[in-house]
Specification:
It is a single chain. By secondary structure, the protein is an alpha/beta fold. It has helices at residues 32-40, 78-88, 95-103, 105-114, 148-162, 230-238, 269-273, 299-313, 327-333, 335-342, 399-417, 431-434, 444-461, 468-486, 493-514, and strands at residues 19-22, 25-28, 47-50, 68-69, 129-130, 140-141, 166-169, 172-179, 186-193, 199-203, 207-209, 242-243, 248-255, 277-279, 318-321, 353-362, 365-367, 379-381, 386-387, 440-441, 488-489. It binds succinic acid. Succinic acid binds at residues 64-66, 132, 266, 268-270, 397-398, 400.
Length: 527
């Protein structure tokens, strides 16, 4: 099966007077990867930080509970962290990238400490560590108990706001990347204000995509609204290599009772790291017979074991029993989780927590080298949108924020070393290059209907357990939706997001059909 090519004829309407100005660097995405990269760009360079959401908390980083994995003690070693990462990755990791990730972890944590990120410490001021699935050591630093993402993002954002060389564009979506037809390099981005739908261009020879994941192409996800793979889809249209999209990670334990919301609330693996045990309705600790690491086995293994239990019992959820912890400990260690459970009268650790798997993370994405460089000159990617190869078939818990730091910084270092950055001159883009000729209009109801259909198809046929005929059916349906979208004017923000979502879903299904064996998170039942 050969992967289809993106439709290069898609064009966007552009008013020529909407060209703003140029920046030395444009970063798309204000999660930890994007902001941390911005903070490492030389202060003499003008940086645009663009965020689709109107607030800093609109990205996935903000919701990271568990923490950041790094080797910070003498009882641990980089070799062990590398081994755990490779084991979790099901033999598919890029070992060189894993070495970089792990070896540069400690210095980046020290940088965060120096930047006053409020890590949890003991009474002597020493960092506290927790453990999660797949880790053989307690090596995960955390903030606010279970609020690592929020605390880290808030702190980095507050520092970036004070930097004179950084300008923020909130409520601004990436529509497309402008790259030369003759020269293989970028020259700017087409953006759209999400409220006014005004389209404008920013020019730059250095663009970092830190646009996060794709969770919203599934019905159940821990990813926030808007996580549809905008960066991946735009990079693909610009000619970037996209890889390993079939490797979609499902977190085993999202909270089951939920208020209607775009994202599901997560019960961190750290709850199991601190002694929580998965039980089925009869109270059986079913992970014990599945893997030597039992409840702390790598994520894909726990997720599939839960699916098996659910099939066996006909239930919609299993439980986490946190009864080995005292109430005081639980409340102090997991204040966010405790408060969320209490909203549903689940009084942990007295009560068991009902949980089931949900889409959580995209291991593949825009192929990059060890400095976040893609195959297009000046186009970089880092964080969840990138595929450095460090996660292989299954990401080790809490390696994701670490990846944001290590590779966000590396993107910045590479850009700092580049000569002849353009200095705020206008970008030479002809209007014809980005005008999309009028066709059918896509209305809101159609978008809503197609969105529901894509999410259902992806959840049924491209989830944690797949079948070849299901994937073929999914591809056929998604191709029809894609054809429709291709013949339609996508002038609205909702339309552009919907187009990206369709493109991303198609990439996942095509990649899943290309990989003929089960590996890591890609599990084909009929093989
Ligand atoms: C968790 O806290 O379980 C999630 C952390 C991660 O995704 O690595």
């Amino acid at each position: 099966m050969t992967k289809s090519k993106p439709n290069q004829n898609r064009r966007y309407i552009y008013e020529s007077n909407n060209l703003l100005n140029s920046f030395d660097v444009i970063i798309i995405g204000c999660g930890i990867a994007g902001i941390y990269a911005a903070l490492h760009i030389d202060k003499t360079k003008k940086v645009a930080l663009v965020n689709k959401g109107s607030e800093i908390k609109s990205g996935s980083s903000y919701y990271a509970q568990g923490g950041i994995a790094a080797v910070m003690t003498e009882s641990d070693s980089c070799d062990l962290h590398i081994e755990d990462t490779l084991n979790a990755g099901a033999g598919l990791c890029n070992a060189e990238a894993v070495k970089v990730l792990v070896n540069e972890g400690p210095e980046n944590i020290r940088t965060l400490v120096d930047l006053n990120v409020p890590f949890d410490v003991n009474s002597e001021g020493e960092l506290l560590f927790t453990r999660e699935g797949g880790h053989t050591k307690r090596r995960i630093v955390h903030c606010g108990g279970d609020a690592t993402g929020k605390e880290t993002t808030d702190r980095l954002y507050n520092i970036a706001k004070e930097r004179e060389n950084i300008e923020f564009f909130f409520g601004t979506a990436l529509i497309d990347i402008i790259s030369g037809e003759k020269e293989n390099k970028v020259s700017g981005v087409i953006l759209q204000e999400t409220e006014t739908e005004k389209i404008f261009i920013l020019g730059s020879e250095n663009i970092i995509l830190a646009t996060g994941g794709i969770g919203q192409v599934y019905n159940s996800t821990t990813n926030p609204k808007g996580a549809v793979g905008d960066g991946i889809a735009a990079a693909y249209r610009a000619g970037a290599v996209i890889e390993s999209m079939e490797m979609v990670q499902f977190h085993p334990t999202a909270l089951v009772p939920q208020y209607e919301s775009d994202r599901l609330f997560l019960i961190s693996e750290a709850v199991r790291g601190e002694g929580g045990i998965l039980r089925n309705r009869t109270g059986e600790a079913f992970m014990r017979g599945v893997h030597p690491m039992a409840d702390l086995a790598p994520r894909d293994i726990v997720t599939r074991a839960i699916y098996k239990e659910l099939l066996k019992t006909g239930d919609n959820f299993v439980f986490i029993d946190a009864g080995s912890m005292t109430k005081d400990f639980f409340i102090k260690r997991f204040p966010t989780i405790y408060a969320e459970c209490m909203k549903f009268n689940i009084d942990v650790p007295v009560d068991f927590i009902p949980v089931s798997p949900a889409q959580h993370y995209q291991m593949g994405g825009i192929k990059t080298d060890l400095y976040g460089r893609t195959n297009i000159g000046g186009l970089y990617a880092c964080g969840e949108a990138a595929s450095t190869g460090i996660h292989g078939g299954n990401r080790l818990a809490s390696n994701s924020v670490l990846e944001c730091l290590v590779f966000g910084r590396r993107c910045a270092l590479d850009i700092n070393s580049r000569k002849n950055l353009s200095k705020r001159q206008g970008v030479n883009i002809s209007r014809e290059n980005i005008i999309r000729t009028a066709g059918r209009k896509l209305d809101l109801y159609q978008i809503e209907g197609f969105t529901k259909e894509i999410r259902t198809i992806m959840s049924l046929y491209a989830g944690a357990v797949r079948k070849t005929d299901g994937l073929l059916f999914a591809l056929e349906r998604i191709n029809r939706i894609m054809d429709y979208a291709d013949e339609t004017d996508i002038e609205t923000f909702g339309g552009a997001e919907f187009y990206n979502m369709t493109q991303t879903a198609k990439l996942v299904v095509e990649s899943a059909l290309e990989r003929k064996e089960s590996a890591g998170a890609h599990y084909i039942e009929d093989l």
